[in-house]
Structure formats: structure tokens, C-alpha cells
Amino acid sequence: MEHVFEAARLFFERSSDEKRRFAMPGQLEGWRDLGAEYSDDPERPDLNEAFGLVARNRSRTADLGWIDDNPLHAALRRAMDVLTPKVDALFADLKANLAPSGDDLVASEWSYLQVNYYRPSRESRDLLQDAHEDGHLLTVLAADQPGLELEIDGAFRPAPRDPNALVVMPGSILTAMTGGRIAPLRHRVRRDAGIASRISMMFFVNPSLEEPPEAWLPDAAGRRADIREAAIAASTAFGLPALDRAASLDAGAPS
Q1: Out of 64-68, 71-75, 154-158, which region has the weakest mean confidence (pLDDT)?
Q2: Exposure pattern of 118-128 as b/e (b: 16+ CB <10 Å)?
Q3: CB 3.0-4.6 Å disulfide test: which of 7, 85, 129, 132 passes with 71?
Q4: Rounded to an integer, what distance in angstroms lies between the CA atom of residue 62 and that of residue 68?
């Protein structure tokens, strides 16, 4: 994580023209400027820049020279290699406890890493990101500064901070997989005016859209969710293109 944070700090302090070399409008890949997405209200955009790396695009972005030209891209590739087997092991434990005969669940190639870069001291809003859930199976998160708040028992509380630990937040697709047994975790990011910059890294874990798993458990009405449909629908909630297009360079050429 330290390598990711250091590479991110250097990348986001580049000029907008330099960062724009790694922008892909309409994709989850590469750089997005401040206000490109929102958490709850389109009139209140998230107050952070972002950089994304999609698992299924790794060979394509390598062909573009991004590994050599962008240390952040290289650091995220290494982080993805570390995090993916840990997420898969967590899913294996969940399956063993909830649905031993169900489909296997893994961090598919439709998953992606994203780094958010905030400048809290430059903003005036109390919340840099409004309350939301991420709309994935899981979000695995690390941050270099405080600000993350989790909704627990109806109240928002600062997330525990441990430089050697990750925060794992279930999303609404895991809720669909488990028939409502595991609820999504709502969270938000509060501004601390005394912090010049804040970096967070999120591993947004998604199911395969090509071979989606069957929901492990039915909901209260006895229905099993269509996981592919749920994942695509959830991905459009934040002002970004749908996952089936935004996570595939096949759907659009880089800028």
C-alpha cells in the first residue's frame, strides 16, 4: 500500500495535461478529473480525482506503454496481484458457510482498482463524498489519512485506522448473492481542513459478466437475483457508464 500511496502522490501532483495522457473518457481505466462521479446526488459531485486499473484490460494498457510511463499503473498491478487471492479466499469461506453447493465466487476480471486523491484543505463542503454503498460484491479499502466514516447501527462513525489493516465493505451485489443475508455497508468521506491531501485505494470486486454466478440464496420472496443484471444496474448509480462497457477497452478507444 505504501508503494501505491507514494506513486499516487507523485502522479496526482502532475499537471492536468500530463495526467490527461492517461485519461479514457467513458472507461473505468485511467485518470478522471475532479467531479467526474457522484455518490448520491448529481448536484454534489465527489471532490476527488481518480485513477483506475481494470483487471481485464491489463494486457491492453501494457500495450499502450502505461507500465513504463506511469509508476502508479505499475504499483496498482502489483497491488491487484496481492489482493486478488485474499479476496478469493474470503469468498471461499463465505460459500462454505452460506452455500456449500453454490457456484464458486471469485474476484473476476471485471473487478478494478481505483485510487482517489482528495485535497481537503482546498474544499469547503463538510463531506468530500456523500453517504453511499459502492454497488459491488466487496470493496477492499486502504487510506493514508482519516476521513472515512462507516454507518453502523444507524449512525456514522470514523472507520478504524490501522496502517497494517484493510477495511472490507460488502456491497449490494453481495447482498443479492446472499438473498439479503449480508447488507451493503454505507459510508462517506468527511473533510478535515487540516489535511492537505488524502489518498485512498479501493479494490472494487465484481462478479464475471460473461459467466455470472447464480445467487447463493433466494430473497425473502423466494427469488434468486440475476447477478449479471444486478452488477450492471448498480454500476450506473454514480454517473459512470455501465460496467459492461466501462470496464472494457473493447468498447471504446483511448483518448
Answers
A1: 64-68
A2: bbbeeeeeebb
A3: 7
A4: 8
Measured CA to CA, the distance from residue 203 to residue 87 in angstroms comes to 10
pLDDT digits (tens, 9 = 90+) for 77-135: 999 999 999 999 999 999 999 999 999 999 999 999 999 999 999 999 999 999 999 99
- Give the position of cell 460488502: 170
DSSP notation for the chain: -HHHHHHHHHHHTS-HHHHHTTB-TTSSSEEE-TTS-BSS-TTSB-S-EEEEEEGGGHHHHHHTTHHHH-HHHHHHHHHHHHHHHHHHHHHHHHHHHH-TTS------TT-EEEEEEE-GGG---SEEEEEE---SSEEEEEESSS-EEEEETTEEEEPP--TT--EEEE-HHHHHHTTTSS----EEEE--TT-S-EEEEEEEE---SSSPPPPSS--TTSPPP-HHHHHHHHHGGGSSPPHHHHT-GGGS---
In the structure grid, which three cell numbers stand for residue 20, read together?
490527461
Give 158-195 pLDDT, tens digit per residue.
998 887 889 999 999 999 999 999 999 999 999 999 99
pTM: 0.95
Q: What is the mean pLDDT of residues 140-151?
A: 97
User: For residue 20, how many other CB atoms are within 10 A of its CB?
Assistant: 13
Percent of the chain at pLDDT exceeding 70: 98
For residues 38 and 16, what is the distance between their CA atoms, to the nearest angstrom? 20
**Nearest-angstrom CA–CA distance, 171 and 205:** 9
